[in-house]
Structures are given as structure tokens and as C-alpha cells.
Model the fold of this input.
Amino acid sequence: MKTTRLESALALCLLALAGCAVGPDYARPQLDTGRAYAQGPAMDERAERDIPADWWTAFGHPELDRLVAEALRANPTLEAARHALRVAQENRRVQDAALWPQLQASYSPTRTKIAGNLGGNSPGVQGDGSVIETGANTPAAEGGTAPFNTPVIYNFHTAQVSVSYAPDVFGANRRQSEAAAALAEAQRHEWQAARVTLVANLVSAAIQDGQWREQIRAAEAGAQAAEAALQLAQRQRRAGYAAAQDEDAARSALLAQQQILPGLRQQLEQNRHLMRTLIGAPQDRPMPEFALHDFRLPPELPLSLPSRLLEQRPDVRAAEEQLHAAVAQVGGARAARLPQFSITGNAGGAAAHLSQAFWASGRFFDLTANLVVPLFDAGAARHRERAAAAAADQAQAQYRATVLAALQNVADALHAIEADEKAFELAERGRDVARRSWATAKRRQDAGYADRTGTLAAELASRQAEQQLAGAQATRLSNVVALFQALGGGWWNLPPESAQLR
Done:
């Protein structure tokens, strides 16, 4: 029996010195991301290119660059994310402090009045008010106990320093600290994700501002042409050269063109409201007017391997850190089921006068070691560990879902850009054909081979083709923005002081 106890004590000491942390150690899950984002040669032809931190400057619009800088300074959502990051970082430091001994100092002055009807067992008082220890038969005149009906007042001062320390034998505190650090890192990536999303939304809004303006201009010109065609049809009907059906058809064309304008103007104003909100400005703030032809299509588009996307996407990194924290919580829950150790010590002095508290007769100390062994809790600790393990499984599934969504985002953006090139080419060719048809109609009218009706119809078709081209151009630019965002937005190329808060 003695040998067994000795071996157990030695094993416990070695375990304390080793300071191992129970529970699973985190390792990134192995996911099959594939070698390409989608099937087809078009997805493999682009060379891998990095993304600059200021990727929006590739569109070559100085006014847009100024708006983005203002948004990064004043957007309240981004500011809230920065504060959330500071909260997480401070909570991590709070958890780290649990690994160190805690030192406190206290001072407790006490003034007590004891009722006189307690009898001869009441403490006596000297002339200066200090307590003396006497028996029940000591006369009050000699400094003994007071008479039966006389209350007694005495003072007492206690000053001490306390030290407490809980050795992290099984790593419970270290697992909690690990979880807090992972949550702080997750919040940092969420802040970066908010930053990338903010910039992408603002750039897209600026592009849409140019789209709505171009489409409104073409729609207004088309409405003018349709109105002129209606007036011509009305004159021809009065002169007997056209039927009422021709006039109604011209009126329907005008109404159809006019119905487009309110929706376009509403979209333009709502988009400008959004831009003001994104830069953190009130709604009466003047905003620049963007034109589509002022945006330059980046000559080289970025692309990263799917495996690198796990490092570049801030939402993927945040999901991974959430998983890391959940795994660490499993270790913390497991350690809570094991014996807990603590050491406390107090040293100080106590006396009727504070100046006497640290005399040899007033000093005191105590040193206590405490061991708490869980015996029975109706399975609560076991179920807490199982709940933590289930939460880790949930976090792993969410991480996998985030990775798959990220791969889908990139694949969607690449396919959209490929389709946009064809759509823009067709819309540009349609615009050119409509313009040539309009020019031909005007020449035929000037030569007397056709009346103005054909010219106005050709002009209306040309304006509609311009609207379609504006939409195709804006869609192509917006999908390029979506590609930059889907690939992570280049946050890893930020300067160190901008990439994270300390």
C-alpha cells in the first residue's frame, strides 16, 4: 500500500510538471478542393495571379478611389467590426490571465459595539478604547468588564496580502485560452470579410450608378423619338395617310418607353442612397456622378488555386478559427471532469491599532492547498463534454459548407465573366448594327426615298440597343468585382498595422 501511494504521488507530480493539456489537439480538416473551380478548359487557362490590397484601383477611377478611402474610414458597420475585434482580443487576454497567480491586498477596519446585556462575557475596554481580555469577575473600575447594562465599543484592524494559484495540471485553462485566442482570430477575419464586402459593394454601386445614368439617358432619348413618332402618326392620320391603328401603335410605343424611366430613376436614387450609407454619410451629402466609360476593365484578372482559397477567403479563415475554438472547448470540458488543484496563501497583521498590526504578536499567515475531485454530478460533466464534442462536429460541418460556398463563388464568377464577354460582344454588335440602321434611315429620308417614320423607328431601336449595351457593360464590370471579392479581396497584402488590431 505504501508503494502504491508513493507511485501515485510521483505520477501526480510528474503530470503537474509536464503540464499536459487533455483533449484533442486541433488540426485543419482535410478537404478535397479539387484542382480547378469547374470543368472545362476555360477554367484552367488563366494563370495564377495575386490580388493587391487596393484592387479597386485597377478600374482606373480616381473618384471611386476617394469614396473607398472615405468608406474605410467612416463606415459604421466596419467600425463595429473593429470594436468587436478589440472585445475578442481583450477577452483573450482575460483568459490568458487565468494561467498566472492572482495577488490581492486588503485592509478591513472594524468598529464594533456589543450590547451591555451580554453580561460579564463582554470584552472590557481601556481608557483609550482598546480591547482587553479579562474574566467575568474583573471590576470595571480596574479596566475589566463593563457593568451588565453598559455597552462595549472596540476597534479592530486587519491588513493582509492574499495569493491564489490554480495549477493548470490537466490544461483546462490553457484550452480555454486556446479557444479565446481562436475566437479573437476568427473575429479578425470577420473584420477583414466586412472590409472586403464593404469595398465590393461600394465599387458595384458606383458601376450601377453609371449603368442607370446611361440607361436613363438612352431611355429619355428613346422616349423623345417615340413622342416624335406619335406626333408624326397623328399628323399623317389627320391628313389621311395613316390609320388610327398606326397612331395607337405609336402611342403604345411611347408609353412603353416612358414606363421604363420611373423604374430607372428610382433605382438610380436608391443606389445613391446606398452609396451614402456605405461611406457613412448623411443622405443630403453630394455624391459624384459616375459614367460607365470612365471605368477601365482590369487588363489582367486574378486567379488562385482552389487550395489557396482556404488561406485567402476571410470567411473561410473565420469558420476555421471557430472550429479551432470548438475543438479547444472539448479539451476544456474534459479537463473539468478531472481533479482540480488550487493553492491559496494569506499573510498580514491584525490589532486594535493599525500601527500595532505588524508587531510580532499581530502577524499571521496561512497556506492552504486544495484538491477537489468530482465524485457525482448526475452525469452533468460528461454531458457537457459530449455537447462540446457535438459543437465541434457542427463547427466542422459549417467550415466545410463555407469552403464549398467559397469554391462555388469563384466558379460562378469565372463562368459569369466568360459569359459576360460573349454577351457584351453581342450587345456591342447589336448597338453598332442599330446605329448603322439609324444612319441608313436618315440618309434615305434625306434622299427622299423614305419618310421620317422609318427614321424614328430606327432611332428608337438604336436607343434600346444602347440600354442593353449599358446593362451588359455594367454586368461585366460587376462580375469582375465579384471575382475579386470571391478570391478574398487581397487583405493578406495589407500593411501589418492595417491587417490586424492590437
